[in-house]
C-alpha cells in the first residue's frame, strides 16, 4: 500500500471552512484556562504542551486544509474563533514543526480585534522561525515587540541565542547577548551569562565559551555553576585534562565544587572514553573510582547520578553481569535507581541479545515504582531493527499505544520505526505510524521526512518520494544534500526526467515564494 496524502483544492478548502463555520466553530467560543506555568516554562520562556481540545481542533483544521501558497486561506477557516493567550500558545506548540502555517496563524491572530499577543506568543513564534533559520524575521519580531510595548525578556533572547548557536552562528549569538540590554529592561545577569556559556558548551563551542568566560569573569562573578558548565564543555569534546585543570583552578580561587561538578567530570571520564581493548576499559574504571574516592575525601557522597554513570560505562562495554551487579549495589546502599540507570541496563541487555532478561528488568522497574520511558523502549526497537524483527517491533509499538500503558512513543521512537518499516517495504505500517505521529503532535520532523524519502527511494517508489519531498519543503524543512542527490539520481536513472523538471520548478517556486502577505518580512531564501 503506497502512502498517499491528498492536498485539498482551494474550492474544497473553502467548502470545509464553510461546513465548519455552520457546524460548530461559530456556535461556541474557544476558550482555555491556562494552568500555572511550571518551573521549566519559567526558565526557558516557552510554555509547555498542555491538553487542549480547542488547540487540537484548530491545528487539525490548518494542517489538513491549509494551502501553503495561499496563506490567508487560513483566515477563512478560522472565522468566528474567540482567542485567548493560552489557546494561541497551545496552537503554536502544535504547529511548531510547520513554520509557515504557524506564522500564518500568528499573523492572523495578531490582526484580530480583541486579541493582543503576549511575550510568550512572540517567544514561541521566534523559536519556530529560528528553528528553520529565519533569523532576520525573528529579529524583526523582537523589534516589533519593542515597538508594540510588549517588552522582550531575557527568555526571548535565550530562545534566539539557542537557535543561533545550534545553527553554528556563534558570533551572532554573542552579539545577541550583548544587544540584550537595548531591549530588555534589566541588564544581563549571572544567570543569563551562564545560559550563554551553557548553550555554547552543549553545542561543542567550549573554546569560544572559555574565551568569553575569561574576558568577563570579573564582570559576572565566577561561581561553581560557571565552572561546572565549562568542565562539561571540555569533557564533551573529550578534553578531560583541561576539565581537570579547571577543577584545580576552582580550588585555588576558593570556589567549592559540588556533587554536580564531580558528576560532570566523572561523566567526561567515562562516557567518551574508548573501552576497547579490555585494558582501556579497566583504565577508565580505575580513573572513575579514583575520582569517586576524591569526592568522598572532600565530604561529597556519590549520588544516584554517579552510579548511573558507572552503569552506563559497563553498558557501553557490553558487560551485562557487571551492569546488573552495580544496579544491585546501588539498591543495597539505599540509592534507588532512576529511569536513566534502568535504561542503561536495559540497553546493555538488549545489545547483548538478552531480550528476555531486559523484559524482566522492565517488569522490575514497574514493581519498584519507576515508569519506563520512551528511551527505555527504544532500546528494544533498535535491537528489533537490527534483527529485522518487524512482528515484535509492531507488537511492542501497539502495546505502547494502549490506554493503560503509561508511556507514549517519542519522536525518536517514530523515526526508528519509520526508517525500519520503510526499509522493509512495509508501507502500510509506515502509513499507520506516520498518521499516529501526526496525530500525537510530535512530528514529523526533518529526520522523519529524510528517513521516509530514503526508504521510498530504496524501494524505487519515486512518485511517493517526490510527494513527501515537496511536502517537507512546503512545511519549511530544508532537505539535506544527500536527500536531494538521492532523489535526483533515482529519477534520472528511472527515465523520469519530466518528473524531475516539475520537482525542480516547484523547488524554485518555493525558494522565492512565501506568500504576498509576508512581503514586509525579510525571509531568507532556501538554499539547496
Description:
This protein has helices at residues 10-23, 39-44, 53-65, 73-77, 85-94, 99-110, 119-131, 135-147, 154-166, 170-183, 190-202, 206-216, 224-236, 240-252, 259-271, 278-297, 304-316, 320-332, 339-351, 355-367, 374-387, 390-400, 411-423, 427-440, 446-458, 462-474, 481-493, 497-512. It is mainly alpha-helical and 528 residues long. Helix 5 runs parallel beside helix 7. The longest helix is centred in the middle third of the chain and has 20 residues, at 278-297.
Through-space gap between termini:
31 Å
For the report, how would you describe the main beta sheet? none
User: Share of helix among residues?
Assistant: 55-70%
Number of discrete helical segments: 28
One letter per element, helices H and strands E, the order comes to HHHHHHHHHHHHHHHHHHHHHHHHHHHH
Layout of helices and strands, plus pairs?
Layout: H1 10-23, H2 39-44, H3 53-65, H4 73-77, H5 85-94, H6 99-110, H7 119-131, H8 135-147, H9 154-166, H10 170-183, H11 190-202, H12 206-216, H13 224-236, H14 240-252, H15 259-271, H16 278-297, H17 304-316, H18 320-332, H19 339-351, H20 355-367, H21 374-387, H22 390-400, H23 411-423, H24 427-440, H25 446-458, H26 462-474, H27 481-493, H28 497-512
